[in-house]
């Protein structure tokens, strides 16, 4: 669980850096100049940099802020029974991609991880 929480924190840092880098390049800086401007800047400073440009990073899509979790699990699929022609809903097992993740260090995040990964 700690590993996944660490990876999620890394996703947040990458998210902030990517948005800031893209904004500075869009303003006319070279990628190298943008990287130099961001070097040593704390997350709060980068957040302020984007907020001043009208972007609230906490309102970006969850998968960008927290990453995605790819796992093997069950999902619901709708189909048609070939014998009767009626529409049916079935459970299947396969790859599931979760893009709306809770924060893993929070109690609801830990509960989510225990529910999908087991104890």
Automatic annotation (TrEMBL):
Query: Thg1 C-terminal domain: from which residue to which, for each copy?
Result: 2-77
The lineage's top-level taxon is: Archaea
What Pfam families would the database entry show? Thg1C (PF14413)
| Protein name stated in the entry | tRNA 5'-guanylyltransferase
User: From what organism does this protein derive?
Assistant: Methanofollis liminatans
